[in-house]
Amino acid sequence: MMIKNDFLGEVEYTQDDVVTFVEGILGFEDYTEYVYITNPDPAFPFEWLQSIKSPEVSFIVTNPFLFVSDYDFDLPDPVIEKLGISDIKDLAVLSMVVIPDDPKDTTINLKSPVVVNRTNRQAKQVILDEDYALKHKIFEKEGSKENVDSL
Amino acid sequence: MLILSRKKHESIIIDGQIEVQIVDIGDGRVRIGVNAPKNMEIHRKEIYEKINEENTMAAQSKQALKSLEAFVKVKKDEK
Fold first, then answer.
1. ipTM of the predicted structure?
2. What is the number of other CB atoms lying within 10 angstroms of the CB of residue B55?
């Protein structure tokens, strides 16, 4: 199957690349099926969740651990149930990326990550109890080490 | 919206399974206790609104991806 991505052009995908949100993303409840599109360039770790129903609806996401190595949280019980999680190793965590006019102020949402159960490809945006930032600046120096060392 | 009055320590029960109790009243705020099944999530309303807003911004970010790419490239070249 093909989907048109603004950045990469026509992208081929299979059912294995489709992520189903058990509850729609807040504000986008009508869209539950997304293609998870990875970026072929490893130096630019920004990927997409692109809606199949309306391909113009897409979210830029990234792996938060690339920017916050000690990102750690407890998965709320309701989420474990809703996603059918049996093993913590089955989980993938993605953060929504917000790119403002000046890209140096790019932020990721650590407060409500997208959690995907890789075994059944069901996902949910989870609201964490932990006090993480809704807007975590990824290009700001984390103490004396720059977050973007890994890029 | 259903509006009821409750005194301190009184409760309401929603759908036979969620209990909302007034734990304390005073100082311009009410302390509320909620007993709900484990599979239900409970959050302050503002957090839903903020996340909704943040998601909407994230959905618009694809337009700025090229400028982010240029920025990252410059950063790499600087090293």
1. 0.87
2. 21
